[in-house]
Amino acid sequence: xxxxxxxxxxxxxxxxxxxxxxxxxxxxxxxxxxxxxxxxxxxxxxxxxxxxxxxxxxxxxxxxxxxxxxxxxxxxxxxxxxxxxxxxxxxxxxxxxxxxxxxxxxxxxxxxxxxxxxxxxxxxxxxxxxxxxxxxxxxxxxxxxxxxxxxxxxxxxxxxxxxxxxxxxxxxxxxxxxxxxxxxxxxxxxxxxxxxxxxxxxxxxxxxxxxxxxxxxxxxxxxxxxxx
Amino acid sequence: xxxxxxxxxxxxxxxxxxxxxxxxxxxxxxxxxxxxxxxxxxxxxxxxxxxxxxxxxxxxxxxxxxxxxxxxxxxxxxxxxxxxxxxxxxxxxxxxxxxxxxxxxxxxxxxxxxxxxxxxxxxxxxxxxxxxxxxxxxxxxxxxxxxxxxxxxxxxxxxxxxxxxxxxxxxxxxxxxxxxxxxxxxxxxxxxxxxxxxxxxxxxxxxxxxxxxxxxxxxxxxxxxxxx
Lengths: 228, 228
Prior knowledge:
2 copies of one chain form a homodimer. Chain A is α/β, with parallel strands linked by helices. The first copy, chain A, has helices spanning about 10-20, 35-40, 50-55, 85-90, 95, 125-135, 150, 170-185, 200-205, 205-215; strands at about 1-5, 25-30, 60-65, 75, 100-105, 110, 115-120, 140, 165, 190-195, 220-225. In chain A, the strands form 2 sheets. An 8-stranded mixed beta sheet of chain A has the order 3-2-1-4-5-8-9-10, with helices on both faces. In chain A, strands 6-7 form a two-stranded antiparallel sheet. The N and C termini of chain A lie far apart (about 35 Å). Chains A and B meet through strand 7, strand 10, helix 9, helix 10 and strand 11 of A and strand 7, strand 10, helix 9, helix 10 and strand 11 of B.
């Protein structure tokens, strides 16, 4: 598939390289390609600068948000949650219409320091905000409840653990489920929570995740739902 | 121990009968004993009215919130979250001072219909609100992330699953951990999230719980943290 991944941070890089390895044609969207390529800081996961990582993946194409072509089969939002709406605006409605948009971001607000709070929650969610603003896009929330190395390598945990999925369009959820399975998720590990409003629950689980991350000192853990 | 359980609903009854079975001396607090005894509706878990259930437990004493004696060793808040602060006010500071208060309630707001939202969340929590209002009480949040039959019978799920604990006082958390173990929780299943502010995460997990409850059609499931 032609897949556009929005966001050139750790999550965007991790998802992009996985999809590239699986043989998909990846466009990696960023606010400003020139600035992204000039970044000096190393990615915590790869230990590499953006451009060093980018050189390792000759089939991935970096592109400004404003120049994303309209022919992607799928769009994945891996921007930071608070930058999501402005990023999507730069893509424009024509690029997003009738597209499946996988939203894996979280509306974390670091403006009051650590731990962050959520800038949207309880009676709304980021996924619902996207869906309201782009009613002709098929938004599916998933993968936002774990760290990115687990997203693309679920078998790195041995026991059962789960990934949640929320969205209004059943056909879109079938496409997302197939992609999750291609990435390595067992069908039995994917829990369809229901419509896009159920993304509230998936986003509001983040404060617990952040607590556990602080406690364990690593992000290699995930939520599991035990109903045995 | 002398344990006061606040709240005569399903959760309060379930916790009280378990503690009574374990040999503790239980006072069950309610807003108005006379009205509670006159209730006609049956408890969904026991199938009994309050008074029929109460007759089965001759060692449990029903008492108005305003008449709870000050000599309890432990207080458990099992009121509905939105009624908690008014219930505690009826107990009064003298009854709560220097006491361990286990808060198992959730600030669910049903005023906008289903699913409920949280009346406090994100930058605050019910547990923190109690702790601020009663600074000389040792508040420990726990057990609020599952249904009450699982609270008192954790082995009804075969695989691993967890109970969270938040509080500022380490001695109080040791007491709570011992009580959890007495109830049937393995020490390895109890996750200490940290200070009372970590109760935000434990309370904000409720929307996900409610989603899953709606999806599964039953409450016999629990969160597990997989870090294998």
